[in-house]
Amino acid sequence: MSISMGADDEDDEVVNKEHEETRPLAGLPGADRTLLARAPLELAIVEVRFAGARNLPDDAGLRMRERLGAAGLRLTRLEPRQTQRVNMTPGVAPTVEVGTNGWLLANPDGTIQVTLLPQAAVFQTATYYRWSVSMRPSLEAVLAAVGELATPPVVIRIGLRYVNRFVDPAAATVAAWKGRIDERFLGPICHAHLGELVKGSQQQVDLAFSDSQGAILRHGPFVDERNSRSVSYLLDIDCYDTTPSNFDVTELANRTEVLNRTAASMFQSVITEGYRHQLQSDGQTDEETTPASEEVLR
Amino acid sequence: MTMILERTGSTLGDYEELTSFDEQLVSRHTPARDVSDHDLREVLARFDITLAEPMAPLRSFVVTHADATGTSISDVGEGVVATSVVGLLAVAMHRTFRLLTVVPTPGLAADVASEDLPVSAEPGLTSDAQDVVAAIKHSSWRLGLPQRDICEAADVSRSAYYTWSQPGAPRPRVASQGRLWALVQFTEDLEDLLDVPPGQWLLARPERREQLLDGRFDDLLESLRAQPRPLRAAADYARFLSVGGDRLASDAEPATLGRKSRKTTSAQTVSPSRRRKK
What we know:
The complex is a heterodimer. Chain A has one domain. Helices cover 27% and strands 32% of the residues of chain A. Chain A has 7 helices and 9 strands. Chain A has a 9-stranded antiparallel β-sheet with strand order 2-3-4-5-1-6-9-8-7, covered by helices on one side. In chain A, helix 2 runs antiparallel to helix 3 (131-150) and helix 3 (131-150) runs antiparallel to helix 5 (249-270). The two termini of chain B are 37 Å apart. Chain B is of the alpha+beta class. Chain B has a 4-stranded antiparallel β-sheet. Helices cover 43% and strands 6% of the residues of chain B. The interface between A and B is large, with 52 and 41 residues.
């Protein structure tokens, strides 16, 4: 997962102080900034939910597309998102009403998407490179456009989710992930007698960083149909912040950045150091992260 | 067809608490939308199914996801027998969620017969206690099962039930009423013995529903009486609906199981506790 991260707290105390506001939550250690040469990240999603938002203008999708295009995010596909709701009561004919009106904007192959609803704005990409390049500018562009179209009075949730798939074509059994995934997460796979019998595992860990901030971590090995039925490993990190706040683009981006650094720390806590170095081989240090963060915090 | 599950209200019963807990968990997720990678979508769905989200057991019939508001949406694919799915969904949701809203694929809603759904509000009992239609509806409401199941359990043919439901229908012959009145009595007995809604207990184990449909009421009562501990929502029920079995009240928390008064937050919902015999 090539997430741009904050400074390592052992290496650079000065930088840490400067970046204190965007350090990982709950005192988690800062993550190594080196980009991964073999990034397992399949999907990155950032979602901001609103309360009390007005209905979107009829041409919201078009205007959103223009604004995102001006910001460098060119999404050619534009599809309405509308639901019809039918209330079903036994014995009574269903009543139909229009549900949510919104828009989906996407690039031609659908790898980059923006979903705009009265209650939420979502940016989703399958072509993540780094936070400062792939996520923050796009998030700011989306939120800025939302602010122009229908300024939501209250933000009730920010979610940042990274779905990683570790792949090894030679992994015939789940045991192949020993030494790569922290054994405390592998759990029964490391068991002396049962470990060899494990065919798959789906685990969920709920973490609370504070009363309103937390993460849901899902992980486990699975037989990967896309990779010749070898055993791959899913690591799905979903960080969230449900602190209510006003709609402020920069503030929201900063809070999301904190979630990003938290996710990065979690990611590096789940995999072993040796495997991280293996993934990093031929990688490069993410030098762009620090200036971008400094600018944000200025 | 898309089924949308509204958030569970804040005033909840035992089972709804479990569901609410789980649903809150779901709403804390950041949903993935329109994942173009089919394989990745399958993998994520596999985790969803396993990790106790609402409607998980129905995933073999539907594709479920959550929208940006955290609302769970289940899309039923073409070729699925709508009636069976809707009946199953309705039973689950009737028990689980305060409001059922459904977004149908055009033409699909018409396939849903009312007899495939449980009666969601207490039917007005007529003064004629022998009214088999009212008895079937009342049993459906009491047990939270589709009227179709009630007919099967009572050994009443659906065509006869349909005929009896029509205005001016002739009075049913006794021979056509099967074991309806045994079922009514069984329902009464079940409510007396249970401290949870009867339907909840019946659905806790698949074999109980089978016994009910076979009309083996005595066997069910016998197994119920053989239970040594105070009755509660069985773990299997939570697993059946995959709604956070770990939240089932422990032996040390009996108070949470006996709660009687619960408010409903929607006119379309009848809390299981309200179905209980007054």
